[in-house]
Amino acid sequence: MSFFIHPPAWQLREHQVTTESAYFTRRRMLKTLLGLGVSASILPLTGCKSAQTGPGSELEQTFQLPALGPIRKNPEFREGDRPLTTQNLASQYNNFYEFGGTKSIWKSAQALPTDPWTLEVGGRVKNPRTYDLDDLRNTFDLEERIYRFRCVEAWSMVLPWVGFPMRKIIEAVEPTAEAKFVRFTSFYDETITPGPGFHFGSLPWPYEEGLRIEEMANDLAFFAVGIYGKELPKQHGAPIRAVLPWKYGFKGAKSIVKIEFLAEQPATYWNSLMPNEYGFEANVNPEKPHPRWSQATERFIGPGATLDWEMKETLLYNGYAEQVGGLYQL
Ligand code: MTE
After folding, report:
1. Top mutation candidate among 254, 258, 271 for ligand 1, by most atoms within 8 Å of CB
2. Residue 241 Cα, ligand 1 centroid: separation in angstroms?
């Protein structure tokens, strides 16, 4: 049996979707960091502002992005059980801490400079490469894949990403035998990020994430350069971000400027900050609760024009056990 919850306004509030304990503990963590003098000039958190969604609104303008087409819809990666999340909801409920600590950072994320863009790929590889914006959109065959997306905060969506398999980068740069891991580094410039009203200046920027090289070679591992048939909006991590649907969302680094193949496991952002709460592997697993909340169920943000969410059971590897189960021992 399913049930829907209809709040009065369409706008998701962080405490409605994040579990209460996660919401308040994150704020406690920020206070603690401040108390330790970690950040010099944090301003009060603003909470979610009401959204403007009508024609001509600022949100509408962020969708005036070129279509990436024609794009092949890869039939192997469709979603049988759950409908697509509404674009407005997906594009106004984001985590991008470089631009602030609330979910409604889509406006401040518009400050991200994405053109020109350079992505360097190097480290332990035979053919280091540098890609510009054109290369990213034209070197690899782009395809659409519909993937489930599960945040560690126990909410989820279904999203139509446009991009190419990560494996294509492996083939292009040919990692050497020493390469066992990969690190993704996000854009960071302290004059641009963090955005207005929020200062995380002394946290371990830039945002970095990583994988074992076998995980990167898995067919599901994907670089997105678009969503809903168009270029990625900045708040989703334009112009290129990682999408790893069997892992918690924080593994998917946004706005990537560097990919390095490494011999050793890299330090990663949330794992460095709170190692007992956010692991390096971070596979979706309903049997493995977060230290402060269960991961057995999730609030699925679905197809409504206004906010609808539906409680769903969380599946091992987010439902992708067939594709990735062989990579792990439980
Ligand atoms: N990448 C960067 N650079 N900075 C971030 O704060 N947040 C992560 C991930 N990638 C984050 C990031 C988290 S916690 C999540 S849940 C997803 O991005 C959210 O992606 P979305 O906003 O496109 O839904």
Report:
1. 254
2. 9
pTM: 0.86
Sketch out the chain's domains with CATH numbers.
14-321 (3.90.420.10)
With a 6 A CB cut-off, is 153 part of the ligand 1 pocket? Answer: no
Q: With bands split at pLDDT 50, 70 and 90, how would you rate the model's confidence at 6?
A: very low
Q: Under a CB-based contact definition with an 8 Å cutoff, are residues 145 and 171 in contact?
A: no
Instruction: Tell me if 207 CB under 6 Å of ligand 1.
Output: yes
Q: Is the pLDDT of residue 4 over 70?
A: no
Q: How does pLDDT run across 10-69, given as a tens digit for each residue? A: 233 444 434 333 433 444 444 444 333 333 222 222 223 334 455 566 666 666 788 988
| Cα angle value 108/90/8 (rounded, 5°) | 95
